[in-house]
Design brief:
Layout (H helix, E strand, L loop, with lengths): L2 H15 L14 E7 L18 H9 L1 E3 L2 E2 L5 H10 L3 H4 L15 H7 L3 E6 L12 E5 L9 E4 L2 E4 L4 H16 L6 E6 L38 H4 L10 H4 L9 H10 L14 H37 L5 E7 L18 H4 L3 E4 L8 E3 L3 E2 L3 H8 L14 H4 L10 E6 L11 E6 L2 E6 L4 E6 L17 H17 L26
Helix pairs in contact: 5-12, 6-10
Bound molecules: calcium ion.
């Protein structure tokens, strides 16, 4: 008996040595992964995170049955860069997607290619937004660019297909059809099920047109922020509810700039709901309040559409018997401003756009209803997907697997600081380029084109309204944060940003800007 285990170990070593991925691909127990991803969904519009303005019962169900992460911080708060970080597990300066303007280099290493090599079937359905065609996916049906809310056209291998209906519903239809009818059922799968909603434009589905019609949505505490006591960039942007929502956002009149197809959608969906006359006599803060209501209701209606469809997907996983061996992950590409600081959009290192929702349900592994406050990041997703699948994480991936946290065994040396950098300037909404570090209780931000700094005490000033940079009381903290910032830039091999900058003119007249954000 004594030598039997020894023989087994020798055989195992031979087998593993001959196999790149060190995996027994016949093992039936490798979990499936469904990554549910939305665009611009703030945790403050998710009742599992304590939303005071809406209910998301289906997303809440994931949190009730899984783990909610309260501090999932993005590395670069904008759409395409976040997606590239997730696919590669590397910061923007290494994956090449600094802004929304670059074309993603699909030749580079991505987690989905590594999963494929390890015997997983990989699929992506819905929003992609990386310009180049998807690589590393066995199955893909992706929106072209931003994609519309109605009657979307999808890019598929070698062709495009147009489907009539509401995009959030259609993406779910395609996902369910793939899971039931198209995938190779002999393999574990990884599906990225990715919505356009609740991205700007905010066109709800027919089921939600009248939702909130007779309600007043609570205003955030900082709706009328005056941007005093901070560095100059906060006041110089172009993303205020007061001045920068355009006629398309507010659905006030048929925009003159639309093509025939867009006009058709416009008149079909919004013509009957044109309420421009309501605002005719409003001025100043009253007008801003009216615009806020108009904007936030449309946003929340599109969130309701996502939540309904997440319910359809969860029901399918239950009914098909897949739920027990499927890890379901919910996240969004970044946070978002629902009127905080007077804004919509994202980009800043301030909390509202830095924090993104992350919920993970993994039956038999994650304790139901658990909450983690560990400082995690979208940088960690690639390593996590690989670790869940039992695939070795390559050394050049910069993120860390969240699997130990999911197993309620957070490493003692888990990170206590987070590096952030935003690059898109001049660009939409004129948010200045900046980098910085966030720790447990503080945040240091450097606007490097202006050589201006901000330091926030997140305990004393959770809304980040009063920078204490240069305040003697914080001299030690400031020096420590500067040291930590340099350490992180060195660890992540971040080069100086030498790209030319230039003038940026915040658009105060409501011209169409949706194509670029
Ligand atoms: Ca986004």
């Amino acid at each position: 008996m004594a030598f039997r285990p020894a023989v087994s170990l020798v055989l195992a070593s031979v087998f593993l040595g001959a196999c790149d991925t060190a995996l027994d691909t016949s093992a039936p127990s490798r979990p499936n992964i469904v990554f549910i991803f939305t665009d611009d969904h703030t945790a403050r519009a998710l009742s599992a995170y304590g939303s005071e303005i809406n209910e998301t019962p289906n997303l809440d169900r994931l949190a009730d049955e899984g783990m909610r992460f309260d501090r999932c911080l993005v590395t670069n708060s904008i759409c395409a860069p976040s997606r590239a970080v997730i696919l590669t597990g590397k910061h923007s300066h290494l994956n090449g997607q600094l802004t929304n303007l670059e074309t993603f280099d699909g030749q580079q290493q991505t987690f989905q290619k590594l999963l494929q090599q390890a015997g997983y079937e990989t699929g992506i359905i819905g929003k992609w937004h990386l310009k180049s065609q998807p690589t590393g996916f066995d199955h893909w049906q992706v929106l072209i660019g931003q994609g519309p809310y109605y009657n979307p056209r999808f890019l598929v291998p070698g062709d495009t297909i147009k489907i009539t209906g509401y995009t959030t519903d259609i993406i779910t239809d395609l996902a369910l059809d793939y899971l039931e009818n198209s995938r190779d059922k002999s393999k574990p799968f990884m599906l990225m099920y990715q919505h356009k909603a609740p991205h700007r434009g905010w066109h709800p589905g027919p089921d939600h047109w009248e939702m909130y019609a007779d309600e007043e949505i609570a205003e955030p505490a900082t709706l009328f922020d005056d941007y005093s006591n901070r560095a100059s960039p906060a006041a110089g942007q172009g993303m205020t509810i007061a001045n920068h929502l355009d006629v398309g956002d507010l659905k006030l009149q048929a925009p003159y700039s639309m093509n025939d197809e867009q006009k058709e959608v416009w008149y079909t969906v919004y013509g009957p709901r044109n309420e421009a006359f309501q605002a005719a006599d409003l001025k100043g803060d009253d007008l801003t309040r009216w615009k806020y209501q108009r904007y936030v209701k449309e946003y929340l209606r599109t969130v309701a559409g996502v939540d309904d469809n997440v319910g359809r997907l969860l029901d399918y996983l239950d009914e098909s018997g897949l739920a027990d061996n499927t890890v379901v992950i919910y996240s969004s590409d970044q946070g978002w401003y629902l009127g905080e600081h007077g804004w919509y959009d994202k980009r800043w290192m301030y909390e509202e756009s830095l924090i993104t929702p992350l919920i993970v349900r993994w039956p038999g592994v994650v304790s139901a209803g658990s909450v983690s406050s560990a400082m995690v990041s979208n940088l960690d997703f690639a390593a996590t997907f690989l670790d869940i699948a039992g695939v070795d994480v390559p050394a050049d991936i910069q993120g860390q697997s969240l699997k130990p946290i999911l197993e309620d065994d957070t490493p003692n040396n888990w990170r206590t600081s987070h590096y952030y950098q935003y690059y898109e300037y001049p660009g939409w909404h004129c948010v200045e380029r900046h980098y910085g570090v966030r720790t447990d209780h503080h945040k240091l931000i450097y606007f490097y084109d202006r050589d201006e700094w901000e330091l926030f005490d997140l305990e004393a000033d959770p809304y980040e309204l009063n920078s204490v940079w240069g305040d003697d009381t914080y001299a030690k903290i400031q020096a420590d944060l500067e040291t930590e910032l340099e350490r992180l830039r060195s660890e992540y091999a971040v080069p100086e940003d030498t790209r030319p900058t230039g003038p940026c003119i915040p658009d105060g007249r409501g011209a169409p800007t949706r194509a670029g954000d």
